[in-house]
Amino acid sequence: MNNVVLIGRLTRDPELRYIPNSGTPVSTFTLAVDKQLSRDKKQEMEARNQPTADFIRIVVWGKMAETCANYLVKGRLVGVQGRIQTGSYDDKDGKRVYTTDIVANNVEFLEWGDNNNRSSGFDSSGSDFPDIEGFHPIDNDDIPF
User: What keywords were assigned to this record (predicted)?
Assistant: First the structure.
């Protein structure tokens, strides 16, 4: 079984490119996923300039790649479900470099709108909800619970 679920923040805006000949969109971004540390351990690591998060490269294909590139920005909180993919290549000096990426099957946008107000996501009026096919704001009075 090869299944990964991550929640983290983008370290920079996604990069979008298209595969030559096929035109298939592919987007890449890095997700900062906090390590599960006690408050004391986290402060100790920060004092030593050691990372308190893992930085994981995410690869997204197809329509979702374009959606990610259009609507995600640095600092935005997202959930990613996918699989681990490993590989290798020879760098310009002939040294073997090993890679580990997460190939996303699903990317959930956990924040919308103004990133300065991280706790609220989008407001109840839906004014910060982007125009994405299949997504539309609902009135809270329509929720049956």
Answer: DNA-binding
Q: How far apart are CA 27 and CA 25, in angstroms?
A: 7
Residues in the chain, how many? 145
> Using only C-alpha atoms, what is the Rg of the chain?
18
Residue 103 Cα distances to 3, 6, 55, 57, 85, angstroms:
10, 12, 15, 9, 7
Please, what are the domains in the chain?
A: 4-110 (2.40.50.140)
Query: Quick one: pLDDT at residue 56?
Result: 96
In three-state secondary structure terms, 45 is helix
What whole-number distance in Å separates Cα of residue 86 and Cα of residue 102?
Answer: 9
**Threshold 0.90, pTM exceeds:** no
Give pLDDT < 50 ranges for the chain. Answer: 115-127
Give dist(CA 36, CA 54) in Å, integer: 10
Which helix or strand (DSSP H or E) is residue 25 part of? strand 25-34
How far is residue 76's CA from residue 31's CA, in Å, rounded to a whole number? 10
